[in-house]
Design brief:
This protein is mainly alpha-helical. The protein folds into 3 domains: 82 residues, Fumarase C, Chain B, domain 1; 252 residues, Fumarase C, Chain A, domain 2, CATH 1.20.200; 61 residues, Orthogonal Bundle (Ribonucleotide Reductase Protein R1, domain 1). Helix content is 63%, strand content 5%. It contains 18 helices and 6 strands.
């Protein structure tokens, strides 16, 4: 991903655009075919070197003109046709669209890797019972696989977002100074269409001097959402690895890895913490990119300096985040025994809803059943009594339920709803989208 936004690749993509422009002019009869061929042949890093471009830029103080001059001097007589009719951002924004295309491919691959990691764990733990928590408190039982199924579904939506925004983000322009196409004369439409088809890009249909920055804002927003999702999963790992919970743990190399410089026993969720920190940096770039939508008239330069930081950093960090959190789940240690211990530690109180609904099914009004269970639960907690014992001593409850029925209603394994089946469905959908079988 860093290579996509390297100085060398930035120059390479801009040369590709200049060459495509020359070919477009030749295709519509504006310049000789052999001139376009010569420009195309010389529009490579072999002939137009980064060092020469920087040397010229040191004199001209203009990045695109330094490329134009460097390419022109290499192209001989054909050099007089380089950059014909174009403005700087015709080259800059169209080259950026090429970089976006490559960048989104890497993001998509990162999403696939994470989905595969999550799906493998989800399938393995479709029936692994664990505590569900709301407000940080015990709620009702769930399965670890179902928890991960929610993450998979979210990542599949992100894949849809990436695919959907490609047509809006991978867009260039070749329409001149303020987008009117005046510099290209009567054959403007043909020239612009030829360039974009040549490069495999969409076309900004009514540009200013720039490709409109709502496109860039959408890109940063989607990548920020992906990073936020990854932080959500990382935060869950960090919480579940807490000493008092201990249900999962990041992989730890006991032979070499050190958790703390002083507390030698420590095994910390360092990758997940790293993901959480970097995700916040990604999201922080949303505001300056949104601000870069607001430019004076047909353009000013306030977006340029910001975007030189925003776009590469958001792309590289999001790619890094995706691969790190995939690593976490590929190697995650799942402590099923501790999950069961935590469920058992609830002393049956997490089955209150199960009892409530069973009493309702037996004929007791739903609100009456709720109030009865609430009172029994409060009294049991105050007297340090487990919930099943408290229920068994209540005449109203035992009038409607037998002892065996109460045991069945109080079994967490019997109150998982369709969590395993929903997990299977999500994993199956992931297999279909990714076109691969998940072990």
């Amino acid at each position: 991903m860093k290579a996509v936004f390297s100085e060398e690749n930035n120059l390479r993509t801009k040369l590709l655009v200049e060459a495509a422009l020359a070919r477009a002019h030749a295709a519509v009869g504006n310049i000789p075919e052999d001139a376009a061929e010569e420009i195309t042949r010389k529009a490579t890093l072999e002939f137009v070197t980064l060092s020469r471009v920087k040397e010229i830029e040191a004199e001209t103080k203009h990045d695109i003109m330094s490329i134009v001059k460097a390419l022109s001097e290499q192209s001989g007589e054909a050099g007089k046709y380089v950059h014909l009719g174009a403005t700087s951002n015709d080259i800059v924004d169209t080259a950026m669209a090429l970089e976006f295309r490559d960048m989104l491919q890497y993001i998509d691959e990162g999403l696939d890797r994470l989905i595969l990691a999550l799906a493998g764990q989800a399938r393995a733990h479709r029936c692994t019972v664990m505590m569900g928590r709301t407000h940080g408190q015990f709620a009702i039982p769930t399965t670890f696989g179902f928890k991960l199924a929610g993450y998979i579904s979210e990542m599949l939506r992100h894949k849809e977002r990436v695919a959907e925004m490609r047509k809006r983000v991978c867009v260039g322009k070749m329409s001149g100074a303020i987008g009117t196409g005046a510099g290209f004369g009567q054959k403007f439409f043909e020239v612009q269409d030829h360039v974009m088809k040549d490069l495999g890009l969409g076309c900004e249909e009514a540009a200013t001097q720039l490709v409109c920055r709502d496109r860039y804002a959408e890109l940063v927003c989607v990548l920020s959402c992906i990073a936020a999702s990854c932080e959500r999963y990382a935060t869950e790992v960090r919480n579940l690895q807490r000493s008092e919970i201990g249900e999962v743990q990041e992989a730890f190399d006991a032979r070499k890895q050190v958790g703390s410089s002083t507390m030698a026993q420590k095994k910390n969720p360092m990758l997940s913490e790293n993901v959480s920190g970097l995700a916040r940096v990604v999201r922080a770039y949303m505001t300056p990119q949104l601000e870069s939508m607001v430019l004076w008239h047909e353009r000013d330069l306030s977006n340029s300096s910001a975007e030189r930081f925003i776009i590469p950093h958001v792309a590289v960090l999001t790619d890094d985040i995706l691969n790190k959190i995939a690593n976490v789940f590929e190697n995650l240690v799942v402590n099923e025994e501790k999950m069961r211990q935590n469920v058992d530690s609830a002393n049956g109180f997490i089955m209150a809803e199960s009892v409530l609904l069973t009493l309702s099914a037996k004929g007791m009004g739903r609100q009456d059943a709720h109030e009865l269970i609430r009172q029994i639960a409060i009294q049991a907690e105050e007297t340090d009594m487990d919930f099943r014992t408290a229920l068994s001593e209540n005449k109203e409850v035992m009038t409607l339920l037998s002892a065996s029925e109460l045991d069945e209603v109080m079994d967490p394994d019997n109150y998982l709803g369709k969590a395993p089946e929903m997990t299977d469905r999500v994993v199956a959908r992931a297999e279909k989208v990714l076109g691969t079988k998940i072990a």
